[in-house]
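Summary for the steering committee. The consortium agreed at its last meeting that each partner would contribute one worked example illustrating the joint modelling workflow. Our contribution is presented below. We chose a case with several input lines so that the handling of multiple components could be demonstrated. No manual editing was applied between input and output; the record is shown as generated.
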Amino acid sequence: AQKVTQAQTEISVVEKEDVTLDCVYETRDTTYYLFWYKQPPSGELVFLIRRNSFDEQNEISGRYSWNFQKSTSSFNFTITASQVVDSAVYFCALGDSWGKLQFGAGTQVVVTP
Amino acid sequence: NAGVTQTPKFQVLKTGQSMTLQCAQDMNHEYMSWYRQDPGMGLRLIHYSVGAGITDQGEVPNGYNVSRSTTEDFPLRLLSAAPSQTSVYFCASSYTPGAELNTEAFFGQGTRLTVV
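What follows is the complete predicted structure of the assembly.
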């Protein structure tokens, strides 16, 4: 069975601080995909990043970066120099080849000025 | 390009009533799915479809029916609404034939359903 664990329920930071969101996953599949989605207070789901199981290269995209480690089944996400607009719920998700997603419970990020 | 369109955005039902949540996509995606979001539980898969005429159950299918008569539409039916079905429902689509598998899922805006 697939499982995604986001152990952090809520993280509160002051603007300009960095925020790292933890995600640990379980799967028996050899091919899988990992995602981060953002859900702002308005409620829509916004796609942020995607990684497939064959690509452990970590990247930086603007203020976002991610650390994918297959050895520890982790896919952590960092927001650098946080801003108030980053306040949202962030979901980590594990997907199969078609698009079926298993979501974590989400981490609420609160950024105060 | 509208993406994934869900209707209605809000709905209040009485216990025992039935209704259909509509979902339509215009991206020629083969894969469509329905999730429900409850506080502290993330999104959970209700039903999914890998193409017209093919549907299957997800993690929490009880009390819901789906059908997929066209590529574009994937309605979710609540047969006899119960207070436990109070939730936010999201429809998603992904995977265009010939494209790279599982690029991302595109989500509708969500339907907030309250059953009283």
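The first strand of chain A starts at residue 3 and ends at 5. Residues 94 and 100 of chain A are 8 Å apart (CA to CA).
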